[in-house]
Design a protein that fits this description.
The chain is an alpha/beta fold and 152 residues long. The protein is 26% helix and 28% strand. It has two domains: 7-34; 39-133, no CATH class. It contains three helices and eight strands. The protein has an eight-stranded mixed beta sheet with strand order 7-1-4-3-2-6-5-8, with no helix packed on it. A hairpin with a 2-residue loop joins strand 2 and strand 3 (63-74). The chain is elongated. The termini are far apart.
Length: 152
């Protein structure tokens, strides 16, 4: 049996430490490698955010399947990015912002429709989305109605 002596022990020890550091480093960085753990993002156009925030739930048939990832203004509408956690929906699907809790937390409720699957980075158009009726909408409606009153 061959015994490691002198420089062979040092060399073997250094190689073992280096390999251990590399294995730990690679293992720790897996979560930050986007290609390995990338999940698709889908988009929907809404006339306003309806009180929705990043991290709010996305639901299909009452089941949480994903979260809101981004809210961006695009001209006169808002484009909301969301994940579906591997669930597929069709290109004819409808999305609605709903009130989730009595404290006003919101979610997106998806109603799946259509036979062609919605691809990653595709957008549900404004005509397939709805936003909740907000208090400022009520004030706006009242002020518009009151503007037409004849007070004489």
């Amino acid at each position: 049996m061959r015994v490691l002596e002198g420089s062979n022990r040092v060399r073997g020890g250094l190689m073992g430490i280096i390999i251990l550091i590399v294995v730990i480093g690679v293992g720790q960085s897996f979560a930050s490698v986007p290609m390995l753990f990338a999940t698709p993002t889908y988009y929907a156009e809404f006339k306003d955010t309806g009180g929705l925030n990043n991290g709010d739930n996305v639901r299909i048939a009452g089941v949480d399947v994903g979260v809101v990832r981004s809210l961006d203004i695009a001209g006169d509408k808002v484009v909301i990015g969301y994940g579906l956690g591997g669930t597929e929906i069709g290109t004819e699907s409808r999305a609605a912002i709903r009130t989730d809790t009595i404290l006003g937390r919101r979610n997106i409720e998806i109603e799946p429709r259509g036979s062609d699957p919605l691809q990653s980075n595709e957008t549900l158009p404004l005509g397939q989305t709805t936003t909740p009726y907000q208090i400022y909408d009520a004030f706006f409606d009242v002020s518009n109605s009151a503007a037409g009153w004849d007070t004489k």
